[in-house]
Amino acid sequence: MDFTFIIITTVLIVTLVAPVFSYYAIKKARQKDFKTHKKIQTIVYAFCIAAVLVLELLIRFSGGSGSMFKDSSHADNPVFKTILIAHIIGAVLTYIVWTFLIIKSRRKFQKTLPGKFSVTHKRLGIIVFIGLVYTGVTALIVYLMTLDFV
Length: 150
Ligand code: HEM
Description:
The protein has one domain. 77% of the residues lie in helices and 0% in strands. Helix 1 runs antiparallel to helix 2. The model has no long low-confidence stretch (mean pLDDT 97).
């Protein structure tokens, strides 16, 4: 197994388990266990940010964007390119809203959350959760096509 394969597979696994743990954390909030909810959401976010940074570094050191899939049979496939762009746009938007949500919610915790900030928090929380599922599903497709598993 080569180094690149191990890194991108690890990043994929982190991306796929993130919505699972986030869902569990949301269940904890529903049970009013807000401390556990906060702890799990923060840890999931930290792991995902670390994974994205590692992936970015790998892409840079491998020769920049495009270097990851240059040997794939799908490299010139317009369907692959479309899925890749849709994945990147969705992932970037999700991570922007997620970062805002984590920072704001940690600051407002036990002040206006629960409280005035709850409605906004819940709405953004659902948006981020859907974004995490979308990012995971599209990442899996990009991964399988990049490594020619499909
Ligand atoms: C780490 C920072 C976070 C803190 C301090 C926090 C805190 C809270 C609190 C106190 C509630 C209960 C609000 C209420 O019932 O009035 C809540 C609910 C909720 N949170 Fe978070 N949260 C955080 C991160 C997140 C993230 C990242 C997401 C989404 C991925 C999320 C999704 C939700 C959802 C969907 C609910 C509503 C649960 C329900 O249906 O009752 N939270 N959060």
